[in-house]
Amino acid sequence: MKQKHVSILVPRGAAALSCIEGPFILFNKTNEFLEGMGRPPMFRVQLVGQTNEPQVYDGMFTVSPNAAIADVHKTDLIIIPAVNGDMKKVIEANKDFLPWIVEQHEKGSEVASLCVGTFLLASTGLLNGKKCSTHWIAENQFRDMFPDITLVSDKVITDEEGIYSSGGASSFWNLLLYLLEKYIDREMAIRFAKYFEIEIDRTRQSAFIMFTGQMVHKDEPIKKAQEFIEKNYQDKITVEQLTSMLALGRRNFERRFKKATSNTVAAYIQRVKIEAAKKSLELSRENVNEVMYGVGYSDIKAFRTTFKKITGLSPLEYRNKYNRNAQLAI
């Protein structure tokens, strides 16, 4: 197999150090595994900055690039780590990366963003008309900044013909294992997963999402509707009830609600109910039926179907995953 050149970006500003160290460890450790099997190393790994200037993260960790983008004329894989802070400022601080990434992609390089590194990847234009994932907490901001990109926020991994993205936080390991399997084989991906005790083949981050609504907008009547829903989710709430309360026409209300929250009214009510159910399943001793009635459902089939659609788990699976009392009983 031909050796692959991996370029891990060292961005300016705040960055998740684990998203730089993680791929550095994975590709170099894989080389060790291969050499131990009498096979040649597969990866040449470089840390690449906009310049050779070292970057300091969290006020104490210094990362020194091996090369500047001006010195890297051809690479096979670009890793974009998670970046933190004001995304518009972060993108501006790292704008020199963007044309270089596009140029490398045009030469055949694949590109992978980790967690909210998707904001930098999206800024290149390479994701326009494509699907991607990111940390669930940044979902609304991403949709607002990049309306032409389809965000599939429940996915851990997306692969758009060599342009990859991962879900939030440590789920970047799943994308790295996916790449390892693609570049070498399944056996090597399993070996690495076992060595570092990583759950392989995790495809959804739905069970980790905490729905908090989207209130970072200026439509005050819609905020009032959201507040009403979140205080009265146990009751049957209708669109007519909300429009009457706010003195708005139905079509106008529904249009404004979707624009402000990225959810339909019905979907928002469902998400609030299920979020309340999740908290009860995590912390209380109530059984599934008691939780269901407590959040305003009366049909167990409908509750289970909606719960699994949103979280990726059945209510009982979710309870067994997160409730300590349930874990002790197993």
3D architecture notes:
With 330 residues, this protein is of the alpha/beta class. Helices cover 47% and strands 14% of the residues. The protein is built from 15 helices and 13 strands. A 7-stranded mixed beta sheet has the order 6-3-1-7-9-13-12, with helices on both faces. Helix 11 crosses helix 14. 37% of the residues are buried.
Can you summarize this structure?
By secondary structure, the protein is α/β, with parallel strands linked by helices. The chain has helices at 18-36, 87-93, 97-106, 118-123, 139-145, 172-183, 186-195, 220-231, 239-246, 250-261, 265-283, 288-294, 300-311, 315-322, 324-329; strands spanning 4-10, 14-15, 43-49, 55-57, 61-63, 67-68, 77-80, 83-84, 110-113, 131-132, 150-151, 157-159, 163-166. The termini are far apart.
Distance between the termini: 46 Å
Q: Provide the structure class.
A: alpha/beta
Indicate the radius of gyration in whole angstroms: 23 Å
Uncertain runs are none
Q: Biggest sheet, strands in spatial order?
A: 6-3-1-7-9-13-12
Fraction of residues in helix: 40-55%
Order of helices and strands: EEHEEEEEEHHEHEHEEEHHHHHHHHHH
Q: How would the global form be characterised?
A: globular
- How many strands appear in the DSSP assignment? 13
Average pLDDT, rounded to a whole number, is 93
Strand content: 5-15%
Our count of helices gives: 15
The largest β sheet comes out as: 7 strands, mixed
